[in-house]
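Table S2 (continued). Query chain:
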Amino acid sequence: MINELDKEKLRAYIEHEKRNLLFYASFYDHLTEGLSKAGVEKRIDFHLDRLSDMLKKLKDNN
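Corresponding output:
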């Protein structure tokens, strides 16, 4: 079980990952002009996996 301070840190990391995903969603077309679509999608998958893991951890500790 995690303490309240760690839960607050986890919530901050969750918000950070949401902003990362918003960035990729907002600038997808622009990013794929300079990077491969597969490369951009790999980065999106990375952030989705992290977000999913953190949300599960938060849920398990509530």
